[in-house]
Design a protein that fits this description.
Low-confidence stretches: none
Radius of gyration: 28 Å
Bound molecules: zinc ion
Number of strands: 28
Structural class: alpha+beta
Strand order of the largest sheet: 5-4-7-2-1-10-13-12
Distance between the termini: 53 Å
Shape: globular
Helix content: 40-55%
Mean pLDDT: 97
Amino acid sequence: MPGKNLSREEAQQRAAILSVDTYRVHLDVTSAVDPSAATFRSTSTIAFRCSEPGAASFADLLAPAVRAVTLNGTALDPSEVFDGTRVRLEGLAAENLLVVEADCAYSRTGEGLHRFVDPVDGETYLYTHYEPADARRVFANFEQPDLKAPFTFTVTAPAAWDVYANAVHTEVTEEGAARTWRFAPTQPISTYLTAVVAGPYHVERAHYSRESKDGSTLEIPLAATCRKSLAKYFDADEIFTVTKQGLDFFHTEFDYPYPFGKYDQCFVPEYNIGAMENPGCVTFREEFVFRSKVTEAAYEGRANVILHEMAHMWFGDLVTMKWWDDLWLKESFADFMGSYGLIGAGTKYTAAWITFANRRKAWAYRQDQFPTTHPITADIRDLEDAKLNFDGITYAKGASVLKQLVAYVGAEAFFEGARQYFKRHAFGNTVLDDLLVALEETSGRDLRSWAAAWLQTSGVNVLTPQLTVDAEGRITELAVLQDGEPARPHRIAVGLYERDTDGALVRTERVELDVTGARTVVDGLVGKPRPALVLLNDDDLTYCKVRFDDRSLATLREGLGEIDQPLSRALAWSAVWNLTRDGLMPARDYLDLVDRFAGTESDIGVLQSLHQQSRTALDLYAAPEHRGEGERLLAACALRELRAAEPGSDHQLAWARFLALTADGTEHLQLVEGLLAGSARIDGLTVDQELRWSLWLALASAGRATAEELNGELELDNTASGRQHLTHCLAALPTPGAKATAWAAVVDSDELPNALVEAQIAGFAQAGQRELTAGYAAPYFEVIEEIWAQRSIEIAMRIVSGFFPHYQTDEATLAATDAWLAGHPEAAPALRRLVLECRDDLARALRAQAADRG
Ligand SMILES: [Zn+2]
């Protein structure tokens, strides 16, 4: 299918001659409730202009069949003009009307119009997800962000259903077993932002109103939906609270009224990503409807996503990037606003910047050290490139750099620049320069060199303190060394820490300065006593890796957990994690720090990331001869801290989950069995359904659960989520048969929906089962090219990344990976990128293991 992967050049050529007046789209999804029906009827009517009459162009459509194509009243033969991916349009007039009637396919991969049947009650649910280019799986269109137009949707659906789209519905008519919903025209928006959600969804409603400056009142009806079987868990009040706080905050900061009328937030099943900012109809993964107890970090995470998507209503939806090169224009901004808004809007999630420093930045640092890293403003040749760039650079590094920009120009200039940008480009498309122009006007600073250093280069700088002291132990000089190309201007704070009388490490000095070039001297510290700890980038203003001088590192080894400020402590944890990943701190030293200090970590989000990172350190970075010792250490740590945690606390739940993640010895596994059977209790710990599945997974991967027992658990939880957990557990059983079944279910068949593909892969790959899965490395390299060609990109990405032999950390696997790369120079660049990143992870693991061996 040559036309499936639209190139930037093609998009530019099309936008040069076409402009779209209106879309009218009619979808008939009454067939959805019939499991044997694979398709639905789609009619797309596009009124558009062509500045070069007589020219040829094309519309995009991925559909199994086209029934009719009419251009300017002339019927065209679908078999001649439609090739499976595009509708060829020739002899265009100045003003054109195109009508395409197609049979489009229901999706099971989360791309296009996804269909899901709830095992609890048999109800069918539909929703769309398009970014970057899957609206063409649902209706014929010009699939590129800069051909905006108003859309008018009409949806015919089973009579018992509700239907949501970007605009309010204006009329619902009933005919037999079907109802037809007519929606108001939208504002001009891009194709990837259109949305339809249909099914017997449970809905909760609320209302937001606000006085405008001109005395009028802005009214925004709010809705939140989820599947009926999740309604009993749906805390819509909490969702509406954050929503209203966000609407207040963004109206104040952006000074541009919310432009899309109503605001629906739909929580949908088997969703591939966190959420999507469809104007007026945001879709979220339904795992944000919490079925069991979760920690405050999960609520904070959800609130962050709510604000992220809301920020997109302005940055992304009102003003949209011209092409995917400037994806960061919306994602970096929204990612930044997710954290900034949690604080600024006055939500109860006051740890937002700690989470950002510790968790979000870890994603950016990892991505930015791959050989495939790229500048924040990327070179996106085509849609496959675009799909892979929803990554740690575009989101987390971009947001980190905007945080640095706010430190550089000040919040007021930054937001005034944003306000100008919205007004100037409302309903239009932009490139980097448009934002810079606005920010330069409001800040009075030249941002070209700043942008060149931060946005148009890749890689992370390393900042190291260089401290000299005199014979009395007083500072004679503190300099900041900068490594990594290019050197960048960094606005940073430097913190000096000393022990107080209680033994806590407290900040005694804070100096803010601009670091430029390879070496910058910090003023104002000469004569001060040498501190116990020097923390560069204190308060997390810039984006960099930080190192320590010898004494500071010794202080951290003795007392990392005794730093009194949670943000500073989170930065110290982040820094020692980077040292471990870089092979500069042996993995066993990192595990030792976790063992000694995780138990006193107050921030629940940081604690949960320590749990994940220590598991990674053990599985990938520990030398094989130290693994057994490390496993025993972490399991004992989990048990000790679980027993010590405050009954009923988030920390207790986090430690219980960590016990499930680390249990290996008989004693731990017996406790896991006891918790499941109810014969063992931990005071205050509720063993609810999600925790039960975590415990079952521990038993399954240790070979202490049978398929029969696992199927028995499904009887208690025969839900979509239960089925995913069961699949995960069955694939984790330590038998050749379990591995073969999981592999075949994903590789040899494309029957499974996205959520079960994910569960199979997660279960298949167990660090403790290296020998059992070693034989799959060779078949992996044999099948990935075919998988890439045949599967949807979403599924192909999961298979290529998920089945890579991550746990075969040996030279032979590295050599096999290199052999594949050398032998496949012509493979799709996006496929090569994924394999290169897996290879880099593997090489890093080998370096870290060598460091741990010594
Ligand atoms: Zn986003």
